[in-house]
Structures are given as structure tokens and as C-alpha cells.
User: What shape does this take?
Amino acid sequence: MNNAALWYASRATGLVSLVLLTAVMVLGALHRSRIASARWPRFVVGDIHRNLSLLAVMFIAVHVATAIMDPYVHIGWAAAVIPFVSPYQPMWVGLGAVAFDLLIALVGSSLLRGIVPARAWRTVHWAAYGCWPIAVLHGYGVGGADSRWGVVRILDLACIVTVLAAVAWRVKARHPDQVVRIPARVANRSGR
Assistant: This one.
């Protein structure tokens, strides 16, 4: 693979990864709040979330591999997992390593979900709320001229707005098991 192809592959897989991770975040928020309909039962939302997560991991693996193989930037394999040791843009590549490490923890805990206690799995899974914004910052900072392109900025902004809306909806939504129901006779006495 020539240098230009590696450069384009790294940038393209990074952008596709951002879109996939955004979709994973949105579906995770929807699935957690137990959204469902006749057309989209909860298990379908969960399956799509899981499959998009796996697809995102594959694109991220290609993104990392092509960035490391690109002779222009000289990142190295260690810098992909050890934050802030890259000779090329250590801050921004370091944020990518942090996001990658969080993603590895998420994938590992999900693969061991049957073994890991539910509370531990859920705690590790909360790392997704840190992984995604760190990955966005990584893409914006390391992207250089790419991040200044109108299309890339619009894509970044659309992803940010979409995730913020999903998280806000998730925080506001009530799980049916959490809704407090006041018996009618008590509600009538209290004037409600």
C-alpha cells in the first residue's frame, strides 16, 4: 500500500469510526432507557447496538493500523495503547490512545459479560461516556487540515449534537419500573 493510500485509509476509517461510535452511543442510550415499539423490539435495538459496536471496533483497528503503517507520521505500536508517548502530536494521538484503551476495556468486559458481575460490567460500560468525547477530541486535534474542511466540521458537529440529544433524552426518560404510581385513593385525598 503506498503512502497516499495509507493516509486516506487512516482518515477515512477515522471518520467512519466516528459515525459508527455515534450510532453506538445513541443506540446504547435508547436501549438503556428501554425504548421499544412493535417494529423495533428491545432485542433488535440491543442486537444492532452490539453489531455496530463490533463494526466500529473493526474500523478503529484498521484506523490504528493504517496510522501506524503510514511512514509520514511515525506513530509506532506502543503509542496506539500508551497515552502521550507518540513523537507525532503527542497530545492528540495520546487522546486517541486513551479512547482506544477505554474501547478495549469496553470490548473486553462485553466479551466476558457472562463471567463479570453485572455491576462491574455496567461500571466499565459507563466508560463509553468518556471514550466517545475523547475520540472526538482526538479526531479534531490530530486531523489537522482535515478538521478544517467544511464537510468534516459538519460531520463532527452533527455527531456531537446527535449524541448530546440522545444522552439528554436518556437522562430525562424514565424506565417503566422506575415510575412511581400513586394509588387513586391516595391521589384523590391529597387533591391531585
